[in-house]
Amino acid sequence: MTRRPETQSQRPDDPLFDVPQIAALGIDGLLVRFRAGESMEANRAALALRAALEADPITGVQETSGALASVYLRFDPAMDVREAILSALRERLAAADWARAPLPQGRRLWHVPASFEGGDAPDLGAIADAAGIAPEEAVAQICAAPVRALALGFAPGQAYFGMLPARWDIPRRAALVPAVPRGAIVLAVRQLIVFAATAPTGWHQIGRSAFQPFRPSRGDETFAFRAGDELRLHPVGGAELREIEADDPGGMGGARAEPIA
What is the value of pTM for the model shown? Predict the structure, then answer.
């Protein structure tokens, strides 16, 4: 059964809106939302819709971008295209069950070595306590399975990976940390980030990699991660990570990517 767009209700037993919502965003944009918060189903819908719009653009749409559970479409407000775009968008939304649509093609599984020792993981003990387990078990659980790049944002090439099991629904800090290093592995609200640049954060640093997600010298490969990619962290010792870093000045940090069938 297909979903027709633009209703405001939400079933309590369904993580998605009964139908996708379309809202105006400024004078030159439309926002399609599949859920008010995050869920893997809503993220799949957002990824699939954006991929479909990129593969077969709606006339008049100049740009699309994706978030955790929504897709943004930008158009030229000087052109009389808004109503035509709305009509075409409603047709697209009604034509498929986006929460069950295939994920974008060309996705990759990234294997990234990371240290969870000492100064590389200043908040590991605290988040393990919050989860009620030992730090070693916390690392084992976090590294046990791949997590999906739900969206990119905050900094160039920086991906939000999730969703971790419910025990990792740990809130952000009450106060900002002045800076975590590029490559830091941080955690909050069931998500992981590999920091693309040194930056302040309200998230918890639980590890560090030598991987650089943002590589401006690589042209078409400036952004390593794409929305829909997956990440698997592999624990290594702090000394081993530093050896990897010294042997790999190009910023891969021992990471490798393989296609997802």
Answer: 0.89
